[in-house]
Amino acid sequence: MTSTTKVKTTVPGHHSMVSLLGTRDELLKLVESAFEVGILVRGNDITVTGPDEETRKVVHLFSEFVRLLDLGQGLDEANVTASIAMVQAAEHPNPSEVLSDEALMHRGRAIRPKTVGQKAYLDAIRTNTVTFGIGPAGTGKTYLAMAMAVLALRRKTASRIILTRPAVEAGERLGFLPGTLFEKIDPYLRPLFDALHDMMDAEQLALLMERGTIEVAPLAYMRGRTLNDSFIVLDEAQNTTAEQMKMFLTRLGFGSRAVVTGDVTQVDLPSGRHSGLRVVRDILTDIDGVAFCELTARDVVRHRIVQEIVEAYRVFDEEHADDEVGDRGRGR
Residue 239 and residue 11: Cα distance in Å, rounded? Predict the structure, then answer.
């Protein structure tokens, strides 16, 4: 039989309870709905009553909320929900360490990891020459890579940023699109431009692109180059062939760092072509300075329903994997 515990914790007086619990206790209600405990608030005292383990988790959670406030971070539904998820899954002992890690600051807005997987991804980028961020849509793999690229430019650890992705979208080719080269490639590279606009002023971005300090180009334009002192991001890498992946990785010059992002469940290559992102892990497993970060549905930071959609598709794909192999064997 599970024993019941009552624990009281006191919030330091320099923090208002409104900042901790929400204007209408909406943050407190998030905690109450996530754990099987009773929570009583009187003044700055919070008393938690319930099963031992649940009580311990909730008390620790409130201490982490106070820690976030100490670090100058306001509490909101997003970081409270993220903290709850980390504590429930025992993924990280201190959610405040994850949520306070700053990748980039622009106009008073900090870009930070929101999950343990995103934190591990940022740490991998910081410590490795080549980092692969592999995971479904909404896990922040491209956005965080772009933030680290902009930070490298600011800190002068890179003299330029190069952003690239293969021009493959549902079987279309660049030649089928009208207009100049820039107009042809713009639809493929638009997500990268959107991220850049979030991280620097429009005038600064235009100037850096005009000078070539920031270069955005399709993957085909990387062939034959050696990229020194650069921070390079290859996005949508699941749409590279094995040959293109090798070509890209061998462009890396002295003083450069590369981040390769992609979702191996969203391959748009023509039938019969193997994704370079799917095979590269087996090839580069034992190379020092190369890291692989697997992001999952738990790292999706879009609407809650997106997490559930991603997880539902993952389960479906696993259940029908044998059917797919059988169809290929029968020549379908």
Answer: 51
Hey, is 128 helix, strand or coil?
A: coil
Rounded CA-CA distance 148/231 in Å is 9
* Parallel/antiparallel/unpaired status of strands 45-51 and 4-10: antiparallel
12-62: per-residue pLDDT in tens? 988 999 999 999 999 999 999 999 999 999 999 999 999 999 999 999 999
Q: How far lies 3's CA from each of 36, 58, 188, in Å? A: 13, 16, 58
Token code pair at residue 146? 């772009």
Cα–Cα distance between 237 and 228 in angstroms, integer?
A: 21
Q: Using one digit for the tens of pLDDT, what is the confidence trace for 248-289?
A: 999 999 999 999 999 998 888 887 788 999 999 889 988 999
Structure tokens at 331: 């020549």
Task: With CA atoms as reference, report the closest residue to 82 among 30, 37, 135, 122.
Answer: 30
Closest CA to 274 of 227, 319, 313, 328: 328
Q: Please give the Cα distance from 48 to 324 (Å, whole number).
A: 51
Contacts of 145 (CB under 8 A, 6+ apart): 125, 131, 133, 233, 235, 259, 261
Name the residue among 238, 146, 254, 160 with its Cα closest to residue 192. Answer: 146
* Burial status of residue 278 (CB atoms within 10 A of its CB: 0-12, 13-18, 19 or more): middle
Separation of first and last alpha carbons in the chain: 56
Pick from 114, 332, 142: which is nearest to 237 by CA?
A: 142
- Which CA distances in Å does 173 have to 165, 178, 233, 270? 13, 11, 21, 11
Beta partners for 147? Answer: none
DSSP category for residue 23: T
Min mean pLDDT across 20-34, 171-185, 207-221 is at 171-185
User: What does the block give as tokens for 74?
Assistant: 């306001």
